[in-house]
Specification:
186 residues; alpha+beta; two-stranded antiparallel ribbon; elongated
Length: 186
Amino acid sequence: MGVKISELPAASALAGTEPLPLVQATETRKATVADIAPVRSVAGKTGAVTLAASDVGAATAVHIHVATEITNTPAGTIAATNVQAAIDELDSEKLAATSYTASDILTKLQTVDGASSGLDADLLDGNHASAFATSGHNHSGVYEPVIGNPASDGQVLSSTAAGVRSWVTVSGGIDEDLITLIYAGL
């Protein structure tokens, strides 16, 4: 069995006239180093050339760009053509935090608050405060006092047209459908 190409010793400097076997159109042919490596110079270097990224204007695999090297296409009110200049331009236009107070912000917000402003600062779940009871409200005189569980005792709260309410016993007891009808006001 032969020796693998990967196990052969490395060649020393080549003159270009050394014969090499190669396969061309399914046939093994003879060529010279010069035949298969016609490049004699690269980036102004000749001979056995080792190129660095800088030889061809490329960056190394690991490199850093500063913001002044990254281009920016001016748009809107930004005229800068590199990222650092755009950052500087925006920074110069911002209002310093010491230039405004919470009261200033509130005053500005109030100029755009109102119906359909989207702020809804005076609403709770879309409802104005007048839709809710105050903390001091009570139901005194509105509801009848309940002793025990009238529904399980077969009683319902009845109300006359004059507004007189009383607990009455329903013959045959109360089922869930009757309670539903009573609570629905039917």
